[in-house]
Design brief:
The protein has helices at 22-30, 48-55, 102-111, 140-143, 146-161, and strands at 7-12, 39-45, 61-67, 77-80, 118-124. With 172 residues, it is of the alpha/beta class. Helix 1 links the parallel strand 1 (7-12) and strand 2. The longest helix has 16 residues, at 146-161.
Length: 172
């Protein structure tokens, strides 16, 4: 177990589907934060192939940021560590991107011979997703969760880099 040298924070979501834009908005704001050199932040939106190919670059840790419905109050944040050995049994509702399914991206990555490294999901319970006319913009409750999500990501990164959380790094 060693300290990670490459961490990807990947915002995902659809900006035309209300709160589904959460991951993209967190990534956009996180790009303006001071982060360690080991961290790369990207907003993938609904571009699943771009995410899969980016993950082929052998990151030690991948932190996905997305909405996820866990049946709690809107705006609730989650830190989830999906078990990649159980990828085929991952509940599709855990990931709730409308035009990108992270579970499918991870299965495609596995088919291509890649790995996301250690995987985390920073999720937020949405208030509104199914908008008929493509509403742009987050609900107020989800928008108010963005600063807390950024702090959660920064805390996770600091824990990973300070070796409070040890990870297995694959060697080729």
């Amino acid at each position: 177990m060693i300290r990670p040298s490459r961490i990807l924070v990947a915002g995902i979501g659809n900006i035309f589907m209300g709160d589904d834009a959460f991951g993209s908005e967190v990534a956009r704001r996180l790009m303006y934060e001071r982060l360690p050199a080991e961290v790369q932040v990207m907003d993938f939106g609904i571009r699943s192939y771009d995410l899969a190919y980016a993950l082929m670059d052998r990151y030690d840790v991948t932190i996905l940021v997305d909405v996820t419905s866990q049946k709690q109050s809107p705006g609730t944040l989650y830190l989830i560590e999906p078990d990649l050995s159980q990828l085929d049994q991952v509940d599709e509702m855990m990931f709730d991107a409308h035009s990108m399914n992270p579970g499918n991206v991870l299965r495609m990555l596995r088919t291509l011979g890649g790995s996301p490294g250690k995987l985390y999901l920073i999720g937020c319970e949405p208030a509104m997703l199914d908008v008929e006319d493509g509403q742009i913009g987050l609900s107020e409750i989800v928008k108010s969760s963005i600063p807390k999500a950024i702090e959660l990501i920064k805390s996770l990164v600091n824990d990973l880099l300070s070796e409070k959380l040890k990870i297995e790094v694959e060697t080729a």
